[in-house]
Structures are given as structure tokens and as C-alpha cells.
Design a protein that fits this description.
Length: about 80
């Protein structure tokens, strides 16, 4: 059985290539000879993709945060 690192690399490469291919297919829609679109529709597509990239970064940032899972109460100041 492959170790976790090897599995990560294998899956990351495969899934990243698949995502890149999908984005390139979206690029094909820019051909005005075959398709008609509004600039606002392009903006929606780009915002959706950027939102997913932002979410991806957040998930990886949380995964690398060593304090993940710990909880501490903030101490409140005594009231007078």
C-alpha cells in the first residue's frame, strides 16, 4: 500500500490536471463564432471559479494550522 504522501501527490496531480482541462473547456466558450454571451455572464463564471480557489486556500490554511482543534475561552475583565 502506498503511503499517504504518495497518495496525496498522485491524487493532487490527477485532480489538478482535470480542473485545468475543465477550465480550458470553459475558455473554448469564448469563441464568438460558435457562442453568444454577455460580459456579465463571464463575470459570474470567473467569480465562481475565484470563489472556489479562495475556499481551497482557506481549507489548506486551516489544515496546516497547528492550533486547529484547540479551544480557549477569553478571560473577561471583572465587572465593578
Amino acid at each position: 500500500m502506498r503511503d499517504r504522501r504518495e497518495r496525496f501527490i498522485s491524487l493532487a496531480e490527477t485532480r489538478t490536471e482535470k480542473a485545468i482541462r475543465s477550465i480550458r473547456l470553459l475558455e473554448n466558450l469564448a469563441n464568438r463564432a460558435n457562442y453568444e454571451f454577455e460580459p456579465a455572464e463571464l463575470d459570474q463564471i470567473v467569480r465562481a471559479l475565484e470563489g472556489e480557489i479562495k475556499s481551497l486556500k482557506v481549507v489548506y490554511a486551516r489544515a496546516s494550522d497547528s492550533s486547529q482543534g484547540s479551544f480557549r475561552l477569553r478571560r473577561s475583565r471583572p465587572t465593578l
